[in-house]
Structures are given as structure tokens and as C-alpha cells.
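ok trying this again, last paste got cut off
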Amino acid sequence: MLLNKKYLKRIKGDASFRIFFRKKKLDKSSIIIYCKKEKLKNLLIYDSINKILIKNNIQAPRLYSENYKKNFIEIEDFGNKTLFEILKKEKKKKMEYYNLVLKLLTKIQTVKDRKIKTFNNNLYKIPEYKKKILFDEAKIFCDWYVPKFLPSPQKNIFNRLLKKQIKTLLDKLKLKNNTFVHRDFHVSNIMIKNNKLSIIDNQDALIGNKAYDLASLVDDVRFETSKNFKEKIYKLFINKSLKKLDKKKFRNDFEILSILRNLKIIGIFSRLAERDNKKKYLKLIPHAWKLIALRINSNPALNDIKKNLNKNFFNKLR
């Protein structure tokens, strides 16, 4: 497949190395994803996860054609508006939409497929979301955010202690890694096509903790909601869950994973600004801190990490 530039229009991208184009020819429209760096994840694995979701009657972008050697794939066009953009305008329908999102999440968590044949005719197996991956993600905070605010040797002392505390939190997780986890499940990655919710940005999916995607949705760094609304959505999910949950274990893991996720997000947004000159995400960091504070303050078992963050960051940020 060769690309004719006259049919292409570059469209808004995301925080990844991908570049997106809308291809319009006659009355047909599709999306071209071009990616040279990390193309295995962003092209081949992305399509593989989409195939698994589609196989389970979950709407995700279908592959139309691929030219992996030339670093691009052509996929289904879901339009311009994410649910995030719809919710900004239709605030009165927020609860209605979140009900649908929770149904989608519940359905995603029933996915049992772990393997799929790729468009290169190899077998892709979804990896497990191991503690080491969670640790390495949270450590991005230590590597990219902390050095901007703490001088040596304070930085080194803080990072050593925080890494120990992260490992302690990981050891406190109670639920098994047995659930399909999108890993970036929030309203900015949900679109509507044919009056159905569709999920995009699926390339990072792993088999992990059932509480992770709910933490991603409820404690969404991009879309601010009240504490009461968060609790309402949390309880709705518990009620919609197809299997009985151990509520104490689930709440424990939800809070821990939310904290670790938002530490990761602060680190990633700092890295994007410094390494890739993508500074627009820096404005979201204060809200990520608020989300960490919300979860840390609600659980006495998190007092150690709370004291460390409070001493070195929260007081200054306030």
C-alpha cells in the first residue's frame, strides 16, 4: 500500500510517538497511523489487541490495510469526538454516559482471550501486569519529576525511601492478575460510533488487577470530577460487577493502584516536557497531585508514603 498525500490530512495526536492522518477519498474515510519509533507496540500490538476486543463484541478500530515495513497501518475512522469532549458540552448527561462506560468496562473485564494471530502471522500473547512493571512505571516519577524539585543529596534520600515504599505498596496488593486491563481506561480514550461506545489506544493492554482500570476511570487526571461523584461511580461498578468482589481487598487495591498510577503520570508528563518538548501535559500535574492526596488521606495504611510525600512535596505544592 502506498500513500497518496493529496488524500491525507494530519489530525490531533496523543502523547505517543504515533502520527495520525485522516484519509478521505470520495465518500470513504479512514485513519492512517504512522509510527517509526516503538512501531511494534504502536502498530502491530495495537492491532492485535483491537482484534481481541472485536472478537469479544467490543467496538475497537478495525484494520483495513497495513504496510509495516513502511511504518504505517490504515484503520477504521471513529470520528473526531472523544467522550471527554462530549461530556464537556453535555454535563447534564454525565451520569448517563458513565453508566454506559461502566457497562463497557465490565464487558472488557470478561475478555478471556490471551492470544491472537497478528497481521504478520505471528502469535501475540498478552503479557502479565507484573509487580516489576508497576514498580518501573512508578519509578518514572523518581527519574523525571523529583530531580526538577529536590537538590542532591535530598533527592537521593527521598528516592531511596520512596522506592522502598512503592515496593511495600505492591506487596500489599491483594487481588490476582487475572483480568484484561486496558491500562489507560478513561473518557479521553472512549468514542461513540453507531450509537455504541468504542475503545481506542489499546496497545498497552495487559493481564492484571481488576481494580486498575476503574482507578484509571474514576481518578482521571484529564477530566475532573467531585469526590462524591467518584464515590458514586465506584459503588456503581461494585454493584455492576458480574462476580462477587471482596470489597475490602478491592478498595485496598483501587487506592494503591490509583496512587501508583498518578505517580507514573506525573513522571511521564515531566518526561514528555523535558525529553520530547511536549509541555501541554504539565498543566495536568497539579490535579494528579490532588488525586494522590485524595487516596493517601483516605487510608491510614498509607501513612508512611503520605509522610514522605508530605514532607518533600505536598507542603510546597500547597
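PB: full thing came through this time. Residues 247-275 form the longest helix (29 residues).
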